[in-house]
Structure to design on (297 residues):
């Protein structure tokens, strides 16, 4: 279902950490990338700091989505 | 009903066939927006909403060149979408050409535990020490980034962020031709395994989130941007 993932992870970066990096990369891109149409970002929490994102919830949601 | 905008694409692209939502194409001239009817004037910011957005984007990128819209782009109605497409037609067309046939790969790199540290800073007052320490961290991040030079040759474009405070001080996004993806991953592996001082993670393939911008910066010298360079 989901093909974005970790393409390569150094032996030093343990696999769970690599998965977290993938999620951080996803958040980075969704919240800071993409075409911005001036004045049309009406996100309920547009300026929320990434630190506020509950990574645990996101990890859980991904697990569920992947049927793991 | 408002329009939640997922991405911009060509009018000539195949019909949208993403399951799990009534996606529509709103077109004007050569460019189109892929949208979904949205009851609220704002987009809810939640983990399921983010993941759903990404899943749609990954399905879309499989069949066409897309320019992702920033998560949370909600326009009033189809007419507002068409007006936008009409007004930004030339920029959208150029931006689509920049990403056509390519995907985005992300790399993060850091020093392995035990890799050579910067010379200790001492002698001066705390303020001076602090500033010297910051400068040393940034220098270390730049040194780290230089080890990734071979990757830039495999990419159409690069965005780099250096941040000395981060767990991974060098974060790059590479715009890579679809058929060079495997070669790129091998190059990452080769740098990582050939350099005992660093460790790397490479993620993707992503839609070209980091390369979707309407301002044409092709004339700018060098392809990297951002960071503290």
């Amino acid at each position: 279902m989901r093909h974005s993932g970790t393409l390569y992870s150094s032996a030093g970066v343990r696999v769970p950490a690599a998965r977290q990096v993938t999620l951080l990369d996803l958040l980075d891109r969704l919240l800071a990338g993409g075409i911005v149409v001036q004045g049309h970002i009406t996100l309920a929490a547009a300026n929320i700091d990434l630190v506020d994102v509950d990574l645990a919830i996101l990890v859980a949601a991904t697990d569920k989505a992947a049927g793991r | 009903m408002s329009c939640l905008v997922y991405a911009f694409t060509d009018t000539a692209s195949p019909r949208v066939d993403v399951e799990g939502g009534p996606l529509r194409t709103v077109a004007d001239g050569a460019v189109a927006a892929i949208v979904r009817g949205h009851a609220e004037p704002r987009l809810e910011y939640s983990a399921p909403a983010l993941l759903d957005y990404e899943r749609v984007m990954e399905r879309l990128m499989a069949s066409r060149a897309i320019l992702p819209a920033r998560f949370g782009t909600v326009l009033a109605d189809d007419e507002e979408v068409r007006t936008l497409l009409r007004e930004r037609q030339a920029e959208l067309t150029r931006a689509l050409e920049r990403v056509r046939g390519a995907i985005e790969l992300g790399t993060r790199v850091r020093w392995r535990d035990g890799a050579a540290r910067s010379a200790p800073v001492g002698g001066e007052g705390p303020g001076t020490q602090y500033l010297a320490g910051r400068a040393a961290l940034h220098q270390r991040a730049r040194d780290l980034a230089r080890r990734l030079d071979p990757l830039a040759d495999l990419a159409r474009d690069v965005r780099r962020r250096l941040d000395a405070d981060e767990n991974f001080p060098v974060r790059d996004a590479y715009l890579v031709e679809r058929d060079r993806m495997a070669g790129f991953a091998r190059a990452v592996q080769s740098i990582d395994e050939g350099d005992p001082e660093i460790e790397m993670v490479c993620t993707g393939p992503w839609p070209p989130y980091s390369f979707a911008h309407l301002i044409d910066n092709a004339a700018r010298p060098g392809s990297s941007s951002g960071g503290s360079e």
Q: What stands out?
A: Strands of chain A lie at 5-9. The helical segments of chain A are 15-32, 55-66. The CA atoms of residues 4 and 26 of chain A lie 9 Å apart. The longest strand of chain A covers residues 5-9.
